[in-house]
């Protein structure tokens, strides 16, 4: 375990407090949004907010009788954006800045292997985002179970476990892909634009909770999803190591 | 002499662009070896290949008896590399930077603190140890990157334009250290545009331009490019002097300009007194006679001019 790489990344993160705080605040904004929307949907108060939401997202109209719980599930899944997006911003910036400042060359000349170096980087950004996502997931779950009598019907143990287990895998997939992209492009903006594409499958999955609510209650779907993501995380990490083209990075980037 | 670096027919292309067209070199243990060449000649590419950063297109390279193609990790443990720009983490303190690189070089934890303190003191950076590297001057950062590269006490050290940001006192100190390292058996590959540094430090050097166009020592190179090594001023006795110079067997070649003669003599120490004797005997007033010094830079530029003409 390349703990020294993780510690170094964390020290750099903490030294860059303004960027850190901005990025760490984003998940709580999503949480607050989720809580407010669900509260409005639950109490039937402030209908105009719900109407407005349904206008901006017509899919919410299709939720049927279990509208409130579908919205809750939608947001619960939407939390997966946090482990996908937050570390991606840090990782792409970190890799590209390392090349620009010449530190990558100084590191790659040492005996550290590409696998060790990338694993350290990926874990350094994955661990805090995973912890943060689990915190907001638990807060939201606490709220759902305290507010909805039928919460356990739609938030089954399998569904909750699946969502919790998906967090680290989504994070690793996102970070591994960001490594691949960062080693191919030569600026932070290009890497992050490509990274934004990663959010689409997550949004698709969240929307599917609304459209196919009854079908999405099948535990096998979640078992398959978690297993698939675990395998994909492993594969994308191996690919990121293979495609981390030292020569391209060192010779072509200026 | 034991060779720690052996390069045979090294070639490197980036896409269609050929950068190295077959470099062959042997570098001995404990030597300070200079790598010279104009911009884009392949110096940095050669350094990067030797420091296992990039792959050669073809050719055999052996470092410390191990093939570079199959023993990269082992080789990396025994080499250090200081690149043109100081590759240190600006946000981290000097101690954090060095702790990190010590871990990268797998230096045992028990030895790290003492080694780091020793080197920081040696490079006069101990008092700044808790400051972020970004607050250091360019020269201090360069010192820090040198410390990062020698933390693990490497057997071979690649130095690419290391003196670029240093003040004269630090340059002097670094030169002394380089000589000390070489004396203790370490091999230094020194890449620089400052030819006086190469002249002062290097035991031998190669001028490359895609391939090795000259492999020599500073002394030999200067001699090779010295057309005239003595300057003689004879006042108004030019006609008489020219006849004596033309007939003198010590003089291999000469050029006249007004009252002065530029001479190439076999050995100035013995030739000059004999020539003076002949001139004085012929009633010529010798105003002065002095060795004409040719710098490595002059010789280097002459060679590059010749290469350009050949193209």
Annotation, overall tally of beta strands of chain B: 14
What's the pLDDT, averaged over the residues of chain B? Answer: 88
CATH C-level class of the largest domain in chain B is: Alpha Beta
Total number of distinct structural domains of chain A: 1
Number of helical segments with 4 or more residues of chain A: 13
Helix run count of chain B: 11
Greatest chain-chain contact: A-B, 24 and 36 residues
> How many domains of chain B, as an integer?
2
Give me the strand/helix succession of chain A. Answer: HHHHHHHHHHHHH
Considering DSSP H and I runs of 4 or more, what fraction of the residues of chain A is helical?
over 70%
Structural class of chain A: mainly alpha
Backbone CA Rg of chain B: 25 Å
The major pleated sheet of chain A works out as: none
CATH architecture of the largest domain in chain B: 3-Layer(aba) Sandwich
What is the quaternary state of this protein? heterodimer
Provide an overview of this structure.
The complex is a heterodimer of chains A (254) and B (311). By secondary structure, chain A is an all-alpha fold. Chain A has one domain (2-244). Chain A has 13 helices and no strands. Chain B has 2 domains: 3-217, Rossmann fold (3-Layer(aba) Sandwich), CATH 3.40.50; 227-292, Alpha-Beta Plaits (2-Layer Sandwich). Chain B is built from 11 helices and 14 strands. Chain B has helices at residues 43-50, 72-78, 94-104, 109-122, 138-150, 168-183, 195-201, 218-224, 238-247, 268-281, 296-310; strands at 3-14, 17-28, 32-36, 58-63, 66-67, 79-82, 156-160, 187-191, 204-208, 212-216, 230-233, 251-257, 260-265, 288-291. In chain B, strand 1 (3-14) and strand 2 (17-28) form a beta hairpin. The two termini of chain B are 36 Å apart. The mean pLDDT of chain B is 88. At the A-B interface, helix 1, helix 6 and helix 13 of A face helix 2, strand 6, helix 3 and helix 5 of B. Chain A: It comes from Brevibacillus parabrevis. Chain A: Keywords: Membrane, Transmembrane, Transmembrane helix. Chain A: It is found in: Membrane.
């Amino acid at each position: 375990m390349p703990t020294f790489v993780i510690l170094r990344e964390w020290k750099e993160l903490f030294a860059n407090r303004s960027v850190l705080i901005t990025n760490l605040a984003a998940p709580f904004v999503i949480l607050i949004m989720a809580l407010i929307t669900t509260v409005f949907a639950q109490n039937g108060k402030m209908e105009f907010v719900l109407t407005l939401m349904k206008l901006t997202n017509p899919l919410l109209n299709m939720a049927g009788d279990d509208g409130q719980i579908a919205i809750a599930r939608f947001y619960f899944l939407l939390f997966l954006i946090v482990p996908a997006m937050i570390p991606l911003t840090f990782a792409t910036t970190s890799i590209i800045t390392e090349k620009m400042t010449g530190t990558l060359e100084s590191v790659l000349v040492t005996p550290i292997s590409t696998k060790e170096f990338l694993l350290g980087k990926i874990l350094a950004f994955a661990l805090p985002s995973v912890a943060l996502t689990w915190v907001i997931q638990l807060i939201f779950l606490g709220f759902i179970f305290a507010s909805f009598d039928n919460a356990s019907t739609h938030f089954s143990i399998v569904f909750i476990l699946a969502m919790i287990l998906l967090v680290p895998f989504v994070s690793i997939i996102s970070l591994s892909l960001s490594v691949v992209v960062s080693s191919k492009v030569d600026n932070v903006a290009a890497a992050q634009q490509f990274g934004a594409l990663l959010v689409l499958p997550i949004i698709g999955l969240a929307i599917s909770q609304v459209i196919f609510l009854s079908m999405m209650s099948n535990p096998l779907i979640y078992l398959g999803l978690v297993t698939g993501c675990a395998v994909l995380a492993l594969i994308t990490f191996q690919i990121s190591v293979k495609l981390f083209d030292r020569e391209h990075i060192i010779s072509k980037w200026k | 002499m034991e060779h720690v670096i052996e390069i045979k027919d090294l070639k490197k292309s980036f896409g269609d662009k050929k950068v190295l067209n077959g470099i062959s070199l042997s570098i001995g243990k404990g030597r300070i070896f200079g790598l010279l060449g104009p911009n884009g000649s392949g110096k940095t590419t050669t350094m990067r290949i030797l420091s296992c950063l990039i792959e050669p297109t073809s050719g055999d390279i052996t470092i410390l008896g191990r093939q570079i193609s199959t023993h990269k990790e082992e080789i990396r443990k025994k080499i250090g590399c200081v690149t043109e720009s100081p590759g240190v983490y600006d946000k981290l303190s000097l101690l954090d930077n060095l702790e990190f690189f010590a871990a990268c070089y797998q230096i045992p934890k028990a030895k790290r603190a003492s080694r780091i303190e020793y080197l920081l003191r040696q490079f006069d950076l101990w008092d700044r140890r808790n400051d972020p590297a970004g607050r250091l001057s360019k020269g201090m950062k360069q010192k820090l990157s040198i410390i990062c590269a020698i933390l693990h006490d490497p057997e071979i050290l690649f130095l690419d334009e290391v003196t670029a940001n240093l003040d004269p006192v630090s340059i002097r100190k670094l030169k002394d250290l380089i000589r000390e390292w070489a004396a203790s058996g370490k091999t230094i590959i020194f890449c620089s545009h400052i030819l006086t540094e190469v002249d002062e430090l290097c035991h031998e050097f190669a001028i490359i331009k895609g391939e090795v166009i000259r492999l020599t020592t500073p002394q030999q190179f200067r001699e090779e490019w010295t057309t005239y090594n003595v300057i003689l001023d004879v006042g108004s006795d030019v006609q008489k002097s020219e006849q004596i110079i033309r007939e003198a067997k010590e003089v291999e070649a000469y050029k006249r300009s007004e009252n002065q003669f530029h001479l190439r003599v076999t050995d100035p120490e013995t030739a000059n007194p004999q020539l003076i004797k002949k001139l004085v005997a012929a009633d010529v007033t010798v105003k002065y006679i002095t060795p004409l010094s040719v710098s490595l830079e002059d010789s280097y530029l002459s060679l590059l001019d010749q290469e350009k003409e050949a193209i």
